[in-house]
Design a protein that fits this description.
Blueprint lengths: L6 H26 L5 H14 L4 E10 L5 E11 L3 E5 L6 H9 L6 E6 L2 E2 L4 H4 L3 E4 L11 H12 L5 H14 L20 H10 L8 E5 L7 H14 L4 E5 L5 H4 L4 E6 L3 E6 L1 H15 L9 H4 L7 H7 L12 E3 L5 E3 L5 H13 L29 H20 L2 H22 L15 H20 L2 H12 L6 H30 L6 H25 L3 H18 L15 H9 L23 H15 L2 H17 L14 H18 L2 E2 L2 H17 L16 E2 H5 L2 H15 L1 H6 L13 E4 L2 E4 H29 L3
Parallel strand pairs: 3-8, 3-9, 6-7, 7-8
Antiparallel strand pairs: 1-2, 1-4, 4-5, 9-10, 11-12, 13-14, 15-16
Length: 810
């Protein structure tokens, strides 16, 4: 089929304008970014060679059905080669986006093949994926990064083999080509916070992949929502940046000028059926003849004037394609679709146009046959491009890019900064001032009644902050991750970068909280140990929040799930309801053994009332709360020095007793040391000073003197007076001591073993050590491993879920 003569002036004029625009843009780019040396020329040639390794793309009998009732693609056949731009047009719901996703490898068609250089795309997806760039309709850049930062990060992800200087040069040149150089330092924004115009956002969205090594570009509605002028600007940029590539662009209804920018056009009808595939001018001529054949056909010997009346607007194609069926009175006839909705009935159904185009293809001359798709023709096979190298350098660059992008995004999030700078101090002030209560007339840390509650609420706050800071992270990045899935990103690098960034902000929040809360409640010398357990709890919340973010689709759902995670932690954490006052049937193991017992004699022994029910063991807050209570009781300065003295006394008293007098055989020096230890212990318990700093100074001096052997009890002066503070008041809280003492009594109760000689020592809440697999392990060490286990399991589940989503071909 020959093109109409009137199309040539318009096409030539368009090409002249385009070439002139490209020539001026190229001159401007060369002036701004001159090539400095021949090595850069060779690098650019190598990169350009890599980009052009895909020479042909064929679609053979592609069919896809979403459900049994409705077809999305119906026997699509087409062939294209490097350097061609194909426009995909059609009415809404005709399968344009479905075809784009199938070509991108994001959707596995029901039947048919997509061939790259003659090889199946889906059988070689791992090696081909990085040479295909899918540009979705939605904006998939980070709105909290500037325009230049988005392009720079995209360049690092897509071209990690380039040096920093080369990537920056390419970023600068792309900003000029995209017309975004003047707004390079402006934040990208989003649809709600419009810092860029619609055209600028579309150009930025398209430009993210223009720095890649891709040989196939797939644009899904790149001009949707734009004015005609902005649409032309975006399409001209796509034409210039994707030259010498295979480019598919889906457009709902292009203007006449945009329509003639493409080498070929694919018209899809309802059900994904091909109504035409070929040059745009031929498509207009084809539907003009179809229209003329149905109404008033042109004469066989038509004059050039009559031929010039051929419509040039693509709207005319849709008018012919979707011509409504009318009754004898001229009114449109309506029919009911599969969903029960009434729509105008079409004069010619999609099968009519599909069959008509197939007949049209068969009647074409042999020299034009390559423009027409054919399921019987076998495409030529070429070499597949090798997958790009991803070594340590490339992986490191990806990792640092993930951290940079996550950190900048989090830092520029105003809501996050407000939460970081205001939520932590506000919660600390509220909780600490409310719980600052003592049964004595004057508040002292020793008599403070709510220190256990403060410790528990501190961990609740840490878990809450971790959950809220991370619950929407994956949701915001999902579009960007889906777009970058074919560029060699590793899920564990992305998760690590995100986790490290959130850990920094969690550390800052915990630091601010404890600095205020501990000061109000006069908790001394425990800041860093408190910070350790609070940070671990916050990181557990971060890991759980990231996993939640990977399983839901929107932020509102993620925020609604947070109470479902947090409330069970509060109820079963062991502070709000004590385990000895909790329903004993929560101990599932005991309940099953009791149910399986045949008679009363077989009934299992009732476990300790302080034993943690099995379901509560699944709560991270239970482990960190127990650890923080034990930390306060055993690792404060007073208890630590007493523990050291007790350990040294025990080592002396356990020495051999050769004369069997019940006393260890100690020499004079050892006896003197034992007496000094006893004196030091007595002094420490009765130590008083004007403030806690003096007490700490005395304790440090006693420890140093005991280690050096120069301890002299007479050097310790205890100034009397009503305004002094004792070591017990400064560091030992009675409520905390009661919780730990109760656990010690339960563990060491001799009656438990007298009644049941085979009874094993129970693992009780707040016990200093636990027995697992016959080994006695300190509780703090066990709980630390448990918290790390919760973090590891959550991050592992996140990695599996995210990897499955990114590798999934639906």
């Amino acid at each position: 089929m020959k093109r109409s003569g009137d199309n040539k002036p318009f096409t030539e004029n368009t090409r002249q304008k385009k070439s002139g625009w490209l020539r001026s843009l190229l001159i401007q780019t060369r002036r701004l970014f001159p090539l400095r040396n021949s090595s850069h020329d060779s690098a650019e040639r190598v990169i350009e060679g890599q980009r052009n390794l895909i020479g042909r793309l064929d679609v053979v009998d592609l069919n896809h059905v979403y459900d049994a009732r409705e077809s999305a693609l119906g026997s699509v056949n087409l062939s294209t080669k490097r350097g061609e731009m194909i426009c995909i047009i059609g009415p809404s719901g005709c399968g344009k986006s479905t075809l784009i996703r199938a070509l991108a490898g994001h959707l596995q068609p029901t039947s048919g093949q997509v061939l790259i250089n003659g090889h199946s795309l889906y059988n070689n997806l791992a090696s081909i994926h990085q040479y295909i760039s899918y540009i979705p309709q939605e904006d998939t850049f980070d709105p909290l990064l500037s325009v230049a930062e988005n392009i720079d990060c995209a360049s690092a992800i897509r071209c990690p083999h380039l040096s920093l200087a080369e990537r920056r040069k390419r970023t600068d040149s792309r900003l000029v080509e995209l017309g975004l150089s003047e707004c390079r330092h402006r934040l990208a924004g989003n649809a709600q916070n419009k810092l860029l115009s619609g055209g600028e956002r579309k150009r930025l969205n398209a430009g993210l992949d223009m720095v890649s090594i891709a040989g196939v570009y797939l644009f899904d509605e790149p001009t949707s929502g734009l004015s005609s002028k902005d649409s032309e600007h975006v399409m001209e940029i796509i034409c210039s940046l994707s030259r010498n590539k295979i480019t598919f662009v889906s457009i709902h209804q292009p203007s006449s000028r945009l329509f003639h920018l493409f080498h070929k056009a694919l018209l899809l009808d309802k059900g994904g059926k091909v109504a035409f595939f070929g040059p745009p001018a031929e498509m207009l001529d084809y539907f003009n003849k179809a229209h003329a054949g149905e109404s008033s056909p042109l004469p066989v010997n038509a004059t050039p004037t009559q031929l010039n009346d051929t419509p040039q607007q693509p709207d005319f194609i849709f008018d012919v394609l979707e011509a409504p069926l009318r009754d004898s009175s001229g009114k449109i006839v309506y029919e009911q679709d599969s969903r029960g909705h009434y729509t105008p009935a079409r004069r010619f159904p999609p099968n009519f146009w599909a069959n008509r185009f197939q007949k049209h293809c068969l009647l074409q001359q042999p020299q034009q046959s390559e423009l027409k798709p054919s399921a019987d023709r076998k495409p030529a096979t070429q070499t597949l491009p090798p997958p790009p190298k991803r070594g340590v350098k490339e992986s490191s660059l990806h990792f640092t890019t993930h951290i940079k992008r996550a950190f900048l995004s989090k830092l520029r999030n105003r809501a996050n900064l407000i939460t970081t700078l205001l939520a932590s101090p506000a919660l600390a002030f509220l909780i600490a001032t409310t719980l600052r209560y003592s049964e004595d007339e004057q508040y002292t840390f020793a008599s403070a009644a709510h220190i256990p509650s403060y410790l528990f609420l501190t961990l609740v706050v840490a878990l809450f902050l971790g959950l809220t800071n991370s619950a929407d992270e994956i949701i915001r990045d999902r579009g960007m991750l889906t777009r970058e899935r074919g560029h060699g990103i590793r899920v564990r690098q992305y998760i690590s970068g995100k986790f490290i960034t959130l850990a920094v902000f969690a550390l800052l929040q915990c630091f601010i909280y404890l600095a205020i809360g501990n000061a109000i409640l006069e908790i001394r010398e425990m800041f860093w140990t408190y910070l350790c357990w609070m940070l671990i709890t916050a990181l557990t919340g971060v890991a759980i929040g990231l996993f939640i973010s990977s399983t839901v689709r929107d932020s509102k759902t993620a925020l609604n799930i947070i109470p479902l995670v947090l409330i069970p932690q509060i109820i079963l954490g062991g502070a709000l309801i004590k385990y000895e006052e909790m329903n004993h049937n929560l101990d599932i193991v005991f309940s099953i053994r009791k149910w399986l017992a045949k008679n009363e004699e077989d009934q299992p022994e009732k476990p300790s009332v302080l034993k943690v029910p099995l379901i509560c063991e699944l709560m991270p807050l239970r482990w960190s709360y127990e650890s923080l209570v034990l930390t306060q009781d055993t690792l404060n300065p007073l208890t630590r020095i007493i523990s050291e003295i007790e350990a040294e006394k025990k080592s002396l008293l356990l020495k051999p007793d050769h004369d069997n007098d019940g006393i260890s055989d100690l020499n004079a020096k050892e006896l003197e040391k034992l007496e000094k230890l006893k004196d030091a212990q007595a002094i420490i318990f009765n130590l008083e000073a004007g403030n806690d700093r003096d007490i700490k100074r005395h304790l440090d001096k006693i420890r140093r003197d005991l280690h050096s052997g120069n301890f002299n009890p007479e050097e310790i002066h205890l100034p009397p007076g009503p305004d002094t503070i004792s070591s017990m008041d400064a560091y030992q809280n009675q409520r905390i001591r009661d919780l730990v003492a109760q656990a010690e009594i339960e563990t060491e109760d001799y009656r438990l073993y007298e009644d049941n000689p085979g009874q094993k020592r129970p693992n009780v809440f707040f016990g200093r050590s636990k027995i697992y697999f016959g080994m006695e392990i300190p509780t703090l060490r066990t709980n630390l491993l448990a918290m790390f286990a919760f973090i590891t399991i959550s991050l592992s589940a996140l990695a599996v879920n995210l990897r499955r989503q990114l590798k999934r071909v639906q």
